[in-house]
């Protein structure tokens, strides 16, 4: 059993910091929610690294929203539902497609500069989009531009305080109400931050896998702490693998945006053959899960660890202008995007599931909200449509702030709350090696393709790590590892339970989609196991 808290504490012994709104995380969800919330509330934004480091910063392709005359929210809705493979919440998708365009205008108002073409916003296409509707900035540096603009605002707004290099260990709850968070300060001391509302914006889980496009900070902390607190966690078996991460000796798994295929790039196996026509009529722009599995099949058939991405037939000027970051990064490894085929393979990219919320971003615990990748609003279903994540964070961030304004004032009486658990004094050891082992197990047994046998093998491996929860934890790497272990177990349990293939979840022993039996979600609650919930995709 995973305990409710990672450490023992007595609130009466801790320093207390009071604020109105606590925001955990500094990607687009955290920064935007903090800015919106600061209009009439004191906001404390807590981030474990800096406000410039998050998954958002590395987003290339862009942000999907309807801005073109020939496009419509109806098409955006259809594309999102189709990619989501029967598990999106249609009401959550409606919110996204109708409120997304205003979200983009907000970003522009807050200082984000998107690329333009002939005096209008420049739009590109990505997999499974029926229209060109992806806005981008500085070619392929969209996330960086958004973080630049929003962090500048956050730094000057007096109502927002930023704590960087602070680690949120746990949510403090009582009677299913979130009272605030337990934080480890940079000097190792602990404080209790008490707030009227807590918003988890802590991002995703790419680090559960050895190969990922996500930065080091994406260790699924938010999902794990919400699970410990008793929140409903949904759809964890759906992990999206991006088809094209750079796969070259000595280079990181750098993302090569889907927009490169959107602008005409081909995929070729190591024999030089284009292969996507054997897998899907949309060829290189088929939904991500299909492209990623097609690549793995080709790699297996040709005995290779990569396939090639080829955009050498497009004009070098266009390629350099549209993809300056990708061009420069590849050049660092001696690969010229304009003349060379680039070796790529799939890597873990996005967590579709997360902490279940309603349409106002509120979780099953009162005063606890979740926004962005950590949340499961229902927008993504079994497979996220490319570039929907940044728009989702904006739209739901705004709704969360409106909902916080409607909350009744929480009690400010002093709290007496303590927790202790059977922990041995022995500190846990060799965290770096244990983390690497977990990442390898997840890639091998719970990755792009799974089966009962591989999942049981993974579960067995992770079960052997469970004594960790009976060790005394005191360091950030230990808390992160505990969070990764918890979230990995949720992924595996969901994947074992779902005996079908759908979207990003592919079971080799159940290769078909089973709409009769499985048009439903799997919801995890600590102490209650797994429950099934019918999909409201109509
Ligand atoms: C990409 O640029 O391919 C990533 C966009 C996304 O994941 O939505």
Quick overview of this protein structure:
The protein is of the alpha/beta class and 538 residues long.
Element layout with pairings:
Layout: E1 9-10, E2 15-18, E3 21-24, H1 28-37, E4 43-46, E5 63-64, H2 73-83, H3 90-109, E6 116-117, E7 120-121, E8 123-124, E9 134-135, H4 142-156, E10 160-163, E11 167-174, E12 177-184, E13 190-194, E14 197-200, H5 221-229, E15 233-234, E16 239-246, H6 258-262, E17 266-268, H7 288-302, E18 307-310, H8 316-322, H9 324-332, E19 342-351, E20 354-356, E21 368-370, E22 375-376, H10 388-406, E23 418-419, E24 424-427, H11 431-445, H12 452-463, E25 471-472, H13 476-497, H14 515-518, E26 520-525, E27 529-534
Parallel strand pairs: 2-13, 3-4, 3-14, 4-10, 14-21, 20-22, 24-25
Antiparallel strand pairs: 1-23, 5-9, 6-7, 8-9, 11-12, 12-13, 15-20, 15-26, 16-19, 17-18, 18-19, 26-27
Helix pairs in contact: 1-4, 1-10, 2-3, 3-10, 5-13, 11-12, 11-13, 12-13
Bound molecules: succinic acid (SIN).
Structure description:
The chain has 538 residues and is an alpha/beta fold. The protein contains 14 helices and 27 strands. The strands form 8 sheets. A 5-stranded parallel β-sheet has the order 10-4-3-14-21, covered by helices on one side. A 5-stranded mixed β-sheet has the order 22-20-15-26-27, covered by helices on one side. It has a 4-stranded mixed β-sheet with strand order 2-13-12-11. Strand 3, helix 1 and strand 4 form a beta-alpha-beta unit. Helix 5 crosses helix 13. It is globular. The model has no long low-confidence stretch (mean pLDDT 96). The site of succinic acid has 8 residues, from helix 6.
């Amino acid at each position: 059993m995973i305990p409710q808290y990672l450490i023992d504490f007595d609130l009466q012994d801790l320093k207390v910091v009071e604020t109105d709104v606590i925001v955990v995380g500094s990607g687009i969800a955290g920064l935007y929610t903090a800015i919106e919330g600061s209009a009439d509330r004191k906001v404390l934004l807590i981030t474990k690294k800096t406000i410039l480091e998050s998954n958002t910063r590395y987003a290339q392709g862009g942000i999907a929203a309807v801005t073109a005359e020939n496009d419509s929210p109806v098409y955006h809705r259809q594309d999102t539902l189709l990619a989501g493979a029967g598990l999106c919440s249609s009401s959550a998708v409606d919110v996204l497609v109708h409120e997304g365009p205003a979200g983009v205008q907000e970003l522009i108002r807050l200082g984000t500069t998107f690329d333009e073409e002939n005096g209008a916003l420049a739009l590109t296409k990505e997999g499974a989009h029926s229209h060109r509707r992806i806005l981008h900035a500085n070619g392929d540096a969209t996330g960086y531009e958004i973080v630049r603009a929003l962090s500048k605002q956050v730094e000057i707004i007096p109502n927002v305080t930023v704590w960087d290099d602070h680690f949120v260990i746990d949510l403090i709850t009582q009677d299913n109400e979130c009272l605030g968070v337990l934080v480890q300060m940079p000097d190792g001391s602990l404080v209790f931050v008490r707030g009227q509302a807590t918003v988890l914006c802590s991002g995703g889980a790419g680090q559960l896998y050895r190969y990922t496009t996500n930065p080091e900070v994406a260790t699924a902390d938010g999902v794990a702490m919400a699970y410990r607190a008793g929140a409903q966690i949904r759809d964890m078996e759906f992990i999206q693998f991006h088809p094209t991460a750079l796969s070259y000796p000595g280079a990181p798994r750098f993302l090569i945006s889907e927009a490169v295929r959107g602008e005409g790039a081909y995929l070729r196996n190591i024999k030089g053959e284009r292969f996507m026509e054997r897998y899907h009529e949309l060829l290189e722009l088929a939904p991500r899960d299909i492209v990623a599995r097609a690549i793995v099949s080709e790699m297996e058939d040709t005995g290779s660890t990569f396939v090639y991405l080829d955009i050498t037939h497009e004009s070098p000027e266009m390629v350099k202008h549209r993809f300056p970051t990708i061009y420069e990064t590849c050049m660092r490894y001696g690969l010229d995007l304009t003349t060379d085929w680039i070796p790529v393979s799939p890597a873990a990219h996005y967590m579709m599931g997360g902490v279940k919320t309603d349409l106002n971003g509120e979780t099953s615990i009162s005063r606890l909200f979740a926004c962005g990748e950590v949340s499961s609003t229902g927008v993504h279903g079994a497979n996220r449509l490319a570039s929907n994540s940044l728009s989702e964070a904006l739209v739901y961030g705004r709704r969360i702030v409106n909902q916080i304004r409607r909350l009744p004032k929480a009690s400010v009486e002093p709290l007496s709350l303590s927790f202790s658990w059977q922990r041995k004094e022995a500190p846990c050891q060799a965290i770096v090696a244990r983390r690497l082992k977990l990442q390898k197990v997840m890639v091998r047994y719970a990755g792009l393709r799974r089966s009962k046998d591989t999942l049981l093998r993974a579960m067995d491996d992770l079960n052997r790590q469970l004594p960790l929860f009976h060790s005394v934890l005191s360091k950030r790497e230990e808390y992160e590892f505990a969070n990764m272990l918890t979230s990995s177990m949720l992924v595996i349990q969901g994947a074992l339970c779902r005996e079908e293939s759908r979207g990003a979840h592919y079971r080799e022993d159940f290769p078909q989609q089973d709409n009769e039996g499985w048009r439903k979600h799997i919801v995890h609650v600590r102490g209650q196991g797994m429950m099934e919930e019918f999909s409201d995709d109509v």
